[in-house]
Amino acid sequence: MKIESCELFETRFPMKAPFKTSFGAETSRRILLVKLQGEGITAWGECTASDAPLYSYETVDTCYYVIRTFLLPAILGKRFADVPGFRRTYAEIKGHHMAKAALEHALWDGLAKEKGVSLSAMMGGTRSKAAAGISIGIQESIPMTIDVVGGFLAQGFQRIKLKIMPGWDVELIREVRRHFPHIALTVDANSAYTLEQANIFRELDEFGLLYIEQPLAHNDLIDHAALQAMIKTDICLDESIESVGDARKAFQIGAGRVVNIKSGRVGGGDESIRIHNLAQEKKVPVWCGGMLETGIGRAYNLGLASLPNFRLPADISPSFRFYVDEIVDPPLIPDAMGEYEVPQGVGIGVEVQEKAIQKRLVRHERVAP
Ligand code: OSB
Ligand code: MG
Fold it and tell me: Which of 116, 239, 267, 314 is the most buried (most CB within 10 A)?
């Protein structure tokens, strides 16, 4: 695909209810969308950065800046036959994975459209369905959490993930487990604890969790290894894995036994596949995480989640759960068994509704060489 122009759409989508994690609550979500065009092809990517640098150091504004100032000058006007060639043009730029991934995701969509295949086929996907799990933010009370969990189970979600933080952990999980003794249950601390609090994870050990996601800081691989040696439950790494190199080191020292792959966090689909393949070789299951994406990002995630070693349910809920606006057609919705059909149309397999994006537009720019 030849990159003849890039449009940046900075949007703000109101959320139906706040999504609260150990690092804060979001009540609306600023989302940066990118559109690449060339030789009759239109391709879309979604940036997974948030408003504030709480999940990682990247933000909507740092991504906008890095894309506009450094990445677009490297790629505009050039033709790319594959993703590795695209990545090489900006390989010297350190970090800023979410900024890079927004463009790289769009290139995957564009190349798949050029070849006339689905994103799933182009990435090496082998499944036509992906299991849906759900991530539940911190609620006001334990009884409210139990109601919310019951509601999502009734909708078919195959795995429940509860956000935890100090003071909202052992009691919560004890009660949820008492109500739902047999469900696939996980927790996500988003880095809220330190190794000194290992006793909390020893207590959580008794509840048969599928895994404990990112208990310690994003840069504490060694402490994760120490914690993993102290507890029975598998640790799943999210924030700690920013590259295949991080995954190699984590596996080498036993810092975790499961990986949450978020393509934005690792710089895109190419790096996601490398992590997927290494994990498969090491017999480590992976699953596809989420960053409250719109239908564009969720469609992309479904393509990725169709690869063979994505063996655990994904954090992919339908966009109507968070947003009043739907920006893709058809909307992506799991069936009553908690399974998504992996889109089989060309590229991301959904039609982007630009009018719906216009409604929530904050800033727009078209850049051409
Ligand atoms: O840690 O997995 C996380 C959302 C925003 C930031 C971090 C995380 C999340 C989620 C995913 O839990 C929720 C979703 O996209 O459905
Ligand atoms: Mg997480």
Answer: 314
**Alpha-carbon gap, residue 217 to 200, rounded angstroms:** 16
Residue 229 lies in a domain: yes
Which amino acid is residue 199, in one-letter code? N
Ligand 1 residue neighbourhood (C-beta within 6 Å): 55, 135, 188, 190, 238, 289-292, 315, 317
Q: Is the domain of 160 the same as that of 237?
A: yes
What is the bridge-based pairing of β-strands 41-46 and 129-136? unpaired
Nearest residue to 178 (alpha-carbon basis) of 215, 150, 220, 137 = 150
- Residue with CA at minimum distance from ligand 1 atom 1: 190
pLDDT in tens, 38-67: 999 999 999 999 999 999 999 999 999 999
This prediction has a pTM of 0.97
8 backbone dihedrals φ, ψ, rounded to 5°: -110, 125
Task: Tell me whether residue 346 is in a domain.
Answer: no
Is residue 182 in some structural domain?
Answer: yes
Taking residues 346-354, what's their average pLDDT? 98
Residue located nearest, by CA, to atom 11 of ligand 1: 290
Q: Name the residue among 67, 135, 102, 62 with its Cα closest to residue 292.
A: 135
pLDDT of residue 26: 87
User: Would you call 84 exposed, middle or buried from its count of C-beta atoms within 10 A (0-12, 13-18, 19+)?
Assistant: exposed
Mean pLDDT, all residues of the chain: 98
Quote the domain boundaries for residue 60. 5-116+351-367
Ligand 1 centroid vs 24 CA: distance in angstroms? Answer: 12
Strands (E) located in the chain = 5-21, 24-38, 41-46, 129-136, 159-163, 185-188, 212-213, 235-237, 258-261, 286-288, 314-315, 328-329, 339-341, 351-352, 361-367
Q: Is the separation of the CB atoms in 112 and 346 below 8 Å?
A: yes
d(CA 284, CA 280): 6
Q: Which residues are catalytic?
A: 163, 262
Pairing assessment for the beta strands 185-188 and 159-163 based on DSSP bridges: parallel
Q: For 17-26, write each residue's pLDDT tens digit.
A: 999 999 999 8
